[in-house]
Model the fold of this input.
Amino acid sequence: MKIKPTKNILQTWIETYVPEKDLFFLTKEDLITRIDSSGVLIVPIEEFFNNSTYMQINYVNSCEYCNE
Done:
């Protein structure tokens, strides 16, 4: 049996599970490299997981996806 979601279902999944903002998960070594971080919010991992905004399903899914 193949499950094929409709375009409406896919759109609902996108609206529900994809964050409105781009998230990039970096190591400490990545931060040492000179990058242009103007206009970027850099949040330590502890603050990320303790902030109720980032505990919403769309943000948590993104973090878990990056850890795979």
